[in-house]
Amino acid sequence: MAVLVAGGAGYIGSHMVDRLIEKGYDVVVADNLSTGHRAAVHPQARFYEGDTRDAQFLDDLFAKEDIEAVIHMDAFSLVPESMKKPLKYFDNNVIGMIVLLEAMQRAGVKYVVFSSTAATYGNPERIPIHEADRKEPINSYGESKLMMEHIMKWVEQADGIHSVALRYFNAAGAKADGSIGEDHHPETHLIPIVLKVAAGQQDRLKIFGDDYDTTDGTNVRDYIHILDLADAHILAMEYLKQGHPSDVFNLGSSTGFSNREILEAARKVTGKEIPAEVAPRRGGDPDTLVADSSKAREVLGWNPQYDNIEDIIKTAWTWKQKHPNGYADRS
Ligand code: UDP
């Protein structure tokens, strides 16, 4: 039996597939390559190019493959874009989830582990954030993910499809050998942009706002290594297969770094000056997002390996140095 990774050509998906294959799973990837890369798909995974909003595409895939569980990471995830194009986010993320669940129901697939986000919390009521804390998203990306979580509750009751939602904080880094990594067009995420400046591909970093309610005025985020994230999905899938109930878990390092601290850490790792300037706030950014991830550690037995931000940035820098133009350098 195989695991289907929806969105397996993306940044998180490609690391997910790599980890599954390393652990001996048979892996099928579905991706429409709208933001993912064909070159990011592991050569040992069976690749189906198509859209998870396309019921016929999914029915054909489930007919050909013996899928036991789905890891669903096929979603749009950019906060600024979600503020400008909310309908694009509800269409892809919410409708995509519904069409996927309907196809799973027809095919009799009972387990789904899917990407949720710290953005479901909005401006958190306390730091670190616990799973049961208030959820009032302040961007449509977070709202779309919260809707996906709510949908699962009813689908489980009616259709017996069990789920784990994993609320990621900030995914960062790359496989240590630099063979796969982050490559978005356009790039909007802090660490890859900082490294673009370090590599001389961009003049300077714009720090979006320095008047937030944090120690240095810049946003504080919780960065978690991409392979530690991937491992949590495997644990969650096995947890469901063992018959445990559906649940939701935060995935973070439980340590916050301000945007200025990330810049300083990157200067240290790369040995480059990395010019930066303060720019206006970006819409939809809460002051601080830091996870309490003790539930994932206790219930799933999750044990993240990367606990140092410089080590995480180092892996992203290795990828950047080996592939200055991302996957364009690999095809
Ligand atoms: N950020 C920034 N300059 C950039 C890109 C991002 O100051 O060029 C900030 C952003 O406002 C946020 C943090 O970096 O405070 C992390 O943003 P990112 O887009 O990497 O992840 P998100 O938290 O939105 O998932």
What topology does this entry show?
Blueprint: E1 2-6, H1 11-22, E2 26-31, E3 46-49, H2 55-64, E4 67-72, H3 79-84, H4 86-107, E5 111-117, H5 140-159, E6 162-168, E7 170-172, H6 190-198, E8 205-208, E9 220-221, E10 223-225, H7 226-241, E11 247-251, E12 257-258, H8 259-270, E13 276-279, H9 294-300, H10 309-322
Parallel strand pairs: 1-2, 1-4, 2-3, 4-5, 5-6, 6-11, 7-10, 8-13
Antiparallel strand pairs: 9-12
Helix pairs in contact: 1-7, 2-4, 4-5, 6-8, 6-10, 8-10
Enzyme class: isomerase
Organism: Fructilactobacillus cliffordii
Keywords: Carbohydrate metabolism, Galactose metabolism, Isomerase, NAD
Number of strands: 13
Supply the number of helical segments.
Answer: 10
DSSP strand (E) fraction?
Answer: 15-25%
What overall geometry do the principal axes of the alpha carbons give? globular
Alpha-carbon distance between the termini?
31 Å
Task: Give the helices and strands as they follow along the chain.
Answer: EHEEHEHHEHEEHEEEHEEHEHH
User: Could you estimate the helical fraction of the residues in percent?
Assistant: 25-40%
| Major sheet details | 7 strands, parallel
How do the strands line up in the largest sheet? 3-2-1-4-5-6-11
The low-confidence parts are: none
Structural class: alpha/beta
State mean pLDDT (0 to 100 scale): 96
InterPro entries: Epimerase_deHydtase, NAD(P)-bd_dom_sf, UDP_G4E
Protein name: UDP-glucose 4-epimerase
Keywords: Carbohydrate metabolism, Galactose metabolism, Isomerase, NAD
Domain NAD-dependent epimerase/dehydratase: 3-252
